Amino acid sequence: MKPLFLLLGSNLGDRVSYLQEAYHRLSAVFGETGQKSSLYETAAWGLEAQPAFLNQALLFHSDLPATELLTITQHVEQELGRERKERWGARVIDVDILLYGNTILHTLTLTIPHPHLHLRRFTLAPLVELAPDFIHPILEKTMAQLLADCPDPLEVRLMC
Asked: Is 152 a catalytic residue?
């Protein structure tokens, strides 16, 4: 079984509840042994004129095909009311696949590792909490090294 790193994000409604519910639904699929980082708050990335996000990294283990992982994560988003209106827009829940073991995949619908992972402090901070020594399969740097080198100027604030 390969480590599966996901990132949850929410900036609408009861953000904490959306993250908790997404974690519970994903745990029902991948197993109750999943790990989760603390919650982190940051200003929106991309489209900045929107509410701040709460983010949380998750670690599960799976042997499912990557395309099936995408189906599962999108299903959880839909169940929780995610509406895709604009890229990087406000949302009740976002579930991103960050890393899946050493998988390198690029299709029209899915890229693993996540193509912006190394450019986003709000992704790296919670990921480093779970796996500081995990090595990016393309960049060949640890998550801690990527965070130290991250050019993203947005402050990421540890919430709990």
From this structure: no
